[in-house]
Amino acid sequence: MFEQPQNFPPFTFGYTDNGFMKNATILAAAIALGIASSTAIAAGDPVRGQAAAATCIACHGADGNSVVPMWPSLAGQHAAYIAEQLTDFRDGRRHEPTMTPMAVGLTDEQILDIAAFYASQTPRPITNINAELAAEGARIYRGGNLESGVAACIACHGPSGLGNPVADFPRVAGQHAQYSAKTLKDFRSGERSNDMAGMMRDIARRMTDEEIAAVAEYMASLP
After folding, report:
1. What is the dihedral of CA 191, 112, 179, 104, to 10 degrees?
2. Minimal CA–CA distance to 113: which of 39, 58, 52?
3. Which end of the chain, N or C, is less surrounded by CB atoms within 10 Å?
4. Domain 20-37+125-221 carries which CATH code?
């Protein structure tokens, strides 16, 4: 079993070209917007959602735990975040060759139901972890990189990687490292741009391939 390393660097939001206050201000605004938007999201029906998600099984698994590392596991992800991503795929704010055509015909009700179903499922831990790489990722996740201005992931995604549903920050714990690394690289390149206030693009563009791989491995190790 992978044992999480101790003695992490002190917590920091990380710095940008305009200093600490820029990241802190964006984070505060994101939380405020998340609180406002979360009240507008109705609860879906997980039973209906299971039926509506029948076509999703091939990639995401019957219970939301995908078996192919390039496809994300959705089990236990926040319903509001899943609903937002499906809506973005449907409405053209996020593009992916497989997901876009799958989402384009979904109604608002189906999206909420599917999100409720996956949120109700139990994530399975990932066991094949590279402990050395994950240890390096833990340092970046918790302390960022002061020299390059990479913000600490813990600021938004929490010490256990469970995210913040109120602020619409997703769960990253137990996600496949391959998928997380691709996501960070897509934010870095701008291929993905549906992040709130460009927060993830600003962080990812400062990360090296090595840092991305390490952080992705550490997030995969989180239970």
Report:
1. -50
2. 52
3. N
4. 1.10.760.10
DSSP character string of 134-160:
HHHHHHHHHH-BTTTTBPPTHHHH-TT
Sign of CA pseudo-dihedral 108, 76, 169, 99: negative
Residue 151 CB partners (closer than 8 Å, separation 6+):
12, 13, 14, 15, 16, 23, 144, 203
pLDDT at 42: 67
> What pLDDT, in 10s, does the model give residues 112-166?
999 999 999 999 999 999 999 999 999 999 999 999 999 999 999 999 999 999 9
Tokens describing residue 146: 């002061």
Beta bridge partners of 150: 145
The answer to whether 52 and 115 are in contact (CB under 8 A) is: no
**How would CATH label the architecture of 41-119?**
Orthogonal Bundle (1.10)
Q: Specify the amino acid at residue 29.
A: A
* Domain residue ranges of the chain, discontinuous segments joined by +: 20-37+125-221, 41-119
**Range in 24-33, 105-114, 156-165 with the lowest mean pLDDT:** 24-33
Question: Could you check whether 20-37+125-221 and 41-119 share the same CATH topology?
Answer: yes
The sign one gets for the Cα dihedral 157, 114, 55, 88 is: negative
For residue 68, the Cα-to-chain-centroid distance in whole angstroms is: 17
Across residues 61-72, what is the average pLDDT? 97
Alpha-carbon gap, residue 184 to 167, rounded angstroms: 19
Is residue 32's pLDDT more than 50?
no
What integer is the mean pLDDT of 38-65? Answer: 88
Provide the 8-state DSSP code for 196: G
